[in-house]
Amino acid sequence: MKQRLFGTDGLRGQGNIFPMTPEIALRLGLAAGQYFRNGNKHHRVVIGKDTRLSGYVFETALTSGLCANGMDVFLVGPMPTPAISFLTRNMRADLGVVISASHNPFMDNGIKFFDRDGFKLPDEVEDEISELVLNDNTQWDYPPAEDVGRAHRINDATGRYIVYLKNSFSPKLTLDGMKIVLDCANGAAYGVAPKVLEELGAEVIPVGVSPDGLNINRKCGSLYPEVIARMTAEEGADMGIALDGDADRLIVCDEKGCILDGDQIMALCALELMEKGRLPGNTLVATVMSNMALELFMKDNGGRLLRTDVGDRYVVEAMRREGCMLGGEQSGHLIFMEHSTTGDGLLAALQLLRIMRERERPLSELAGLLEPFPQVLRNVHVKRKIPFDQAPEVREAVLKVETALKGKGRVLLRYSGTEAVCRVMVEGPDAAKVELYTEDIVQACEKHLK
């Protein structure tokens, strides 16, 4: 089996430890340049990053490799991942690159690519690039000296993205009179997110907008929604929004401080689109992690839930294949294909705000559509990702729980695509039993997957 550099969402790891080293980043730039240039002159690539200190290292290494292989590089600095997807399309570039480890702590970093249409690269393209990077015998097709690429700083990228986001919001509506708590996780959206909401008329109470290279996602952002929940209630705000480090997903809370996850947001948005006849096939796309309650909700309202593997890229692939307009993940990646080609936390927040404005009702009244089944998710650290069919003791533990659930719940085991972790998820109608079932499977995993 060939070694893969890429996981479910690009390359990711701790800075200065394989694979996130300057050498790999340089070779990745060379490989991507060679693959996308394909013998032609001066193709274009947009590079953005989040606020991690190591972003400077990988930005420089990637730029060097791309320019050396004949690509012109356009650097936009700290910008959300979905902004790079948009800018790649907007600037007619051949490739977009994001340097970010999303919700991970500052010592981690990652690299992911978008094609010229703003979509994440398919596995087969990533595999070809991986082969070029990892093969010590790769011969780089360097262009002549006069055809190496140039690097440029783009100073108006923030303005372009703001206009794009505002155009996704109804031109007949404003956010005048609304108060919003906004947590940017000291990440990529710290500069752009408050401006979008303020230009639409909202009073913004900002949190996590003072990045120092080390504090991204530190007790703030979508991993710590209790921050916006508390502040929204204390400030009497209409809504709380928490983004992650690269702002491609969000968690929100209503005016009472009640936290809503991606499933609850998707239910609200899907119903609104179905009522307007704007959800093709009345189909919502989500992953295997989404709660059973979402599946039943769609069925009860004349729709269907199409499930995919975990990862927003797989959600997008299914949406493109099936012609769907709305999809996402329980974690808060939401894709509105009418407006975007990838998950965008800010854009999703604007769609929620639009519904609130059009209905003239608070979020607490609109969002009470879905009562999630009790669900427990546990992580088990592993040294090797042993195929589950080679761990009979683990299979036996899962079968025992599934038998006990009697079809009124689910068990899901999967390995993380970015960490040495096995994720154990159990859901069912009885919260106490779900906890016990999960613990039984976790113990089996800890004993036999180490």
What report would you give on this structure?
- By secondary structure, the chain is of the alpha/beta class.
- The chain folds into four domains: 11-154, Alpha-D-Glucose-1,6-Bisphosphate, subunit A, domain 3 (Alpha-D-Glucose-1,6-Bisphosphate, Chain A, domain 3, 3-Layer(aba) Sandwich); 160-259, Alpha-D-Glucose-1,6-Bisphosphate, Chain A, domain 3, CATH 3.40.120.10; 260-365, Alpha-D-Glucose-1,6-Bisphosphate, subunit A, domain 3 (Alpha-D-Glucose-1,6-Bisphosphate, Chain A, domain 3, 3-Layer(aba) Sandwich); 375-449, TATA-Binding Protein.
- The chain is 37% helix and 20% strand.
- It has 14 helices and 18 strands.
- The protein has helices at residues 22-37, 55-68, 81-90, 123-134, 157-167, 193-199, 226-235, 262-275, 292-300, 312-322, 345-359, 363-366, 392-405, 431-448; strands at residues 11-14, 43-49, 71-78, 95-99, 108-115, 151-153, 179-183, 203-207, 239-243, 250-253, 259-260, 283-287, 304-308, 326-328, 334-336, 375-381, 410-415, 421-427.
- The strands form four sheets. The protein has a six-stranded mixed sheet, sandwiched between helices. It has a five-stranded mixed sheet with strand order 8-7-9-10-11, with helices on both faces. Strands 13-12-14-15 form a four-stranded mixed sheet, sandwiched between helices.
- Helix 13 (392-405) runs antiparallel to helix 14.
- The model has no long low-confidence stretch (mean pLDDT 95).
- Belongs to the phosphohexose mutase family.
- This is Phosphoglucosamine mutase.
- The active site is at residue 102.
- Keywords: Isomerase, Magnesium, Metal-binding, Phosphoprotein.
- InterPro entries: A-D-PHexomutase_a/b/a-I, A-D-PHexomutase_a/b/a-I/II/III, A-D-PHexomutase_a/b/a-II, A-D-PHexomutase_a/b/a-III, A-D-PHexomutase_C, A-D-PHexomutase_C_sf, A-D-PHexomutase_CS, Alpha-D-phosphohexomutase_SF.
